[in-house]
Each structure stands twice: as C-alpha cells, then as structure tokens.
C-alpha cells in the first residue's frame, strides 16, 4: 500500500488527574473517520494521550502503513525509544521502578505490531488542522463522559 493512513491523536484531562477524553482523526485518501471517548473518573493526561493512538490503530480493519501524529512526547518517545527496554527489564524503568500505564503501553505495542507505524511529533495548538480537530474530539469525549452536552 503506497498511501498511508494518516492519524492525528490527542488526549487530556481537566484537571490532571481527573476526568479525561481522547480523540483521533484517521485519513486515507478521501475517507475521514473521527473517533473519541472519555473517562468520567480519575485518569491522567498521559493515559488519555496513550488511549487515543490505541483506539485509532485498533479501529483499522486490516494491516496498513500508518503515519501517526501526536503532540505527546511521552507517547512518541515511549513507543519509539523506551518500550523495548521496559519490556526487556520486566516492565521496570531504568531506576527499577514499575512503568506507569503498563497496561496501555502493552496494548499500544500490540496494536502497532499489526501495522507499519511511523511516529511523528507535532506541536500542540500550533494550527495543524487535524491536531486541532483531535483536541476538539478529546474535549467532546470528556464532556460526554461527564454527561455534558457533546458540543466542544
């Protein structure tokens, strides 16, 4: 497949920790799919930032080339630089502490194995249209999880 699926993801909480939401925009040629969800209980920005690419990758019905854009250096560095070391060390950090959000890191790792994923970092709130849309979707997910109006 020469045309990659382009995915932009975002997640966050208000306050952090607190209720949160995640959003993802998936584009392939002329097709666009928007995904979002939320957590009404206590969660964290990092958990929501991780949930967004997991849900986006799991939504793909067959193995594809993916260009995944995130404004979270935690997610990008974690999946491209740290996760293999954590796994090798029994899911302990270099400081021998348990890796936070290990359940989501393992799920993201599994989701990535189905696809050929290239990761990109994008500065948040910098005018990148699909990153801004992913932020709107994350806010919608949080609002709906709290039972509020879905208007972002």
Automatic annotation (TrEMBL):
Its EC number is 3.1.26.4. InterPro entries: RNase_H, RNaseH_domain, RNaseHI. Mg(2+) 1 binds at residues 10, 49, 71. Pfam families: RNase_H. GO terms for molecular function: RNA-DNA hybrid ribonuclease activity. PROSITE patterns: RNASE_H_1 (PS50879). Residues 1-143 form the RNase H type-1 domain. Binds 1 Mg(2+) ion per subunit. May bind a second metal ion at a regulatory site, or after substrate binding. Its main location: cytoplasm. It catalyses: Endonucleolytic cleavage to 5'-phosphomonoester. The keyword Iron does not apply. Mg(2+) 2 binds at residues 10, 135. It is found in: Cytoplasm. Its cofactor is Mg(2+). It is an enzyme of class 3 (hydrolase). The keyword ATP-binding does not apply. Keywords: Cytoplasm, Endonuclease, Hydrolase, Magnesium, Metal-binding, Nuclease. Endonuclease that specifically degrades the RNA of RNA-DNA hybrids. Monomer. NCBIfam families: PRK00203.1. Belongs to the RNase H family. This is Ribonuclease H. The gene is rnhA.
């Amino acid at each position: 497949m020469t045309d990659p699926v382009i995915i932009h993801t975002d997640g966050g909480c208000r306050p952090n920790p607190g209720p949160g939401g995640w959003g993802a925009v998936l584009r392939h040629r002329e097709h666009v799919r928007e995904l979002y969800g939320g957590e009404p209980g206590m969660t964290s920005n990092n958990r929501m930032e991780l949930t967004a690419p997991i849900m986006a990758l799991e939504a793909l019905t067959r193995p594809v080339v993916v260009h995944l854009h995130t404004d979270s250096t935690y997610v990008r560095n974690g999946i491209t630089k740290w996760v293999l070391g954590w796994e090798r060390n029994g899911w302990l950090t270099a400081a021998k502490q348990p890796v936070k959000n290990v359940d989501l890191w393992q799920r993201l790792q599994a989701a990535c194995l189905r696809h050929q994923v290239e990761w990109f970092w994008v500065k948040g709130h910098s005018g990148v249209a699909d990153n801004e849309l992913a932020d709107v979707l994350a806010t919608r997910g949080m609002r709906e999880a709290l039972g509020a109006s879905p208007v972002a």
